[in-house]
UniProtKB/TrEMBL annotation:
The lineage of its organism: Bacteria, Pseudomonadati, Bacteroidota, Cytophagia, Cytophagales. This is Uncharacterized protein. The keyword GTP-binding does not apply. Keywords: Cell membrane, Membrane, Transmembrane, Transmembrane helix. It comes from the Bacteria. It comes from Rufibacter tibetensis. The chain crosses the membrane at residues 12-35, 41-61, 82-102, 122-142, 154-175, 181-202, 223-251, 257-274, 307-327, 339-362, 369-388, 394-420, 427-446, 452-474. It is a multi-pass membrane protein.
Length: 497
């Protein structure tokens, strides 16, 4: 737990700083520096497509690492060729997916030529970006299996966003044209894979030779079968984001993609603690399953849910109560994403409130059930988007995604409860929601202050004071109260006992 807590805190700090830079890019830098919403939409389209491409090529091997690496782990034997196995099959998958991608070109061109001509023009740029996205995903999964998460978090959440800001500035100041900007943008998102290789070499863990016994430790049929199931399950979350983007682009064009993905990204701050902790929790959950220690797993399930909901709900309140202030900072047309923030914010909170359910299902021998749920999720997103985007635009897409996320997570909680007799909820979960309601009411009663930045500061402080005060006073999270107590003891502001 100490390893989880230490790396979780560091990941959260890095991700939070990166989130601030990401907000600057999303709210100010890209909308103003690129000026044209279609150009902003293109960058979001590239970032939405490349993970889908990479996940299809990976064939689920990013999840295979978490489940099977504990059986291969042996540094003296170079982990029995695990990294070789993990890289080789996805690279073959990438070659196959690339061929299919090229064969689909005529259909894609016909679909987007009128509404999104920039997407057609930069179609081939998706291939190199997807390759390096795949390589990073595989190396990240391997490093997480080694309980190394800090460097990848720094690269993905901080460095890429700084480089994105720099490339946008070069375009704005006229040092590069738009095509050169796109090349630099792809390079900024690709450099993470090279740095991960250098990091593994420094750790002396870059073992790319095949192992003599790598097919005997775990039957290769089982590994591949699990990888395929995990691939079909893991791809769903990526496909949902891609489906929203692709369908909005087909109906309304890249400008609406810019507005939708801006609102979508703004709510991603809510998941910062959740994603930071999950980077180290995945191998921990795999180890607990290997040990058959379901008591510890159930405790971890409930504790992490409580911590993530505590922080995530505060972040959601900070965003939604300041939503008018956020859009005041942006070009006027971006306010079309207002209800995207509301609906996706609610979806994020529900995801936090249901905890590690997906990770537990995917890591367990019941992973096939998560596959079924993920296939259902993708189908529902396509159908609901088809019904809601034409009449309601990007707000309809967000509402559709919210409904689907809530429904699927209800099923996941039910499955985990049925199969493993554990669930993430406690009375403190309900109490946190009530405290959140009180903090929202306090913000609603505060009149709009004349100065924008003063209003943001005062409103945020008020929400934090009310929410934090009740959370500490009612002791809804032992982790929070214990952390405060330890901090006070460290600085001599409290007495032991």
């Amino acid at each position: 737990m100490d390893v989880i807590r230490k790396q979780g805190y560091l990941n959260t700090i890095i991700s939070t700083v990166g989130m601030v830079i990401g907000y600057l890019n999303t709210v100010l830098v890209l909308p103003y520096f690129l000026a044209d919403p279609d150009k902003v939409g293109l960058t979001r389209f590239l970032i939405a497509v490349s993970p889908v491409f990479a996940q299809f090529a990976a064939l689920g091997f990013t999840n295979t690492s978490a489940r099977y690496f504990p059986y291969f782990r042996d540094r003296d034997k170079q982990h029995n060729g695990f990294l070789f196995l993990m890289l080789t099959i996805p690279m073959l998958g990438f070659a196959v997916v690339t061929v299919l991608f090229l064969l689909l070109k005529p259909a894609v061109f016909d679909l987007y030529r009128v509404t999104s001509p920039l997407a057609v023009e930069y179609y081939y740029y998706i291939i190199p970006l997807s390759f390096f996205t795949l390589l990073f995903l595989l190396l990240d999964a391997y490093l997480r299996s080694l309980y190394k998460t800090i460097v990848q978090t720094f690269l993905q959440d901080f460095l890429v966003r700084i480089l994105t800001m720099a490339t946008a500035a070069l375009f704005y100041w006229g040092f590069v044209d738009f095509q050169q900007f796109v090349i630099l943008f792809i390079a900024a998102n690709s450099c993470t894979a090279f740095i991960c290789i250098i990091y593994l070499l420094w750790l002396r863990q870059f073992f790319v030779r095949p192992g003599r016994n790598m097919f005997q430790i775990v039957p290769i049929k089982e590994v591949v079968q699990y990888g395929l199931y995990a691939f079909l399950g893991n791809i769903s979350g990526t496909i949902i984001t891609f489906t929203d983007t692709a369908m909005i682009m087909a109906y309304n064009g890249l400008s609406d993609v810019a507005y939708y993905t801006t609102g979508y990204f703004i709510t991603s701050a809510i998941l910062v603690p959740y994603r930071s902790m999950n980077k180290i929790l995945s191998p921990q959950v795999a180890d607990l399953f290997k040990q058959q220690n379901f008591t510890a797993l159930g405790k971890l399930y409930k504790n992490m849910t409580r911590v993530n909901l505590l922080i995530g709900l505060l972040l959601f309140l900070g965003i939604w109560c300041n939503v008018d202030n956020i859009f005041t900072l942006m070009p006027k047309e971006y306010s079309a994403g207002r209800y995207v923030i509301l609906f996706m914010g609610i979806a994020r909170i529900f995801e936090l409130a249901t905890g590690l359910n997906a990770m537990i299902l995917v890591t367990s021998h019941k992973y096939r059930y998560d596959l079924i749920l993920n296939i259902l999720m993708v189908a529902l997103v396509i159908v609901t988007n088809y019904l809601l985007i034409p009449p309601y635009g990007i707000s309809g897409a967000a509402f559709a995604s919210m409904l689907v996320f809530i429904l699927i997570n209800v099923f996941r909680v039910a499955f985990v409860g049925y199969f493993f007799k554990m669930q993430p909820f406690g009375w403190n979960s309900l109490l946190l929601l009530l405290i959140g309601g009180v903090a929202y009411l306090a913000s609603w009663m505060l009149p709009q202050l004349p100065n924008l930045f003063l209003d943001i500061a005062v409103r945020s402080i008020l929400i934090t004071a009310v929410y934090g005060g009740f959370a500490i006073g009612l002791k809804v999270s032992p982790e929070l109260n214990n952390g405060i107590q330890k901090t006070l003891l460290r600085f001599g502001l409290a007495k032991q006992g």
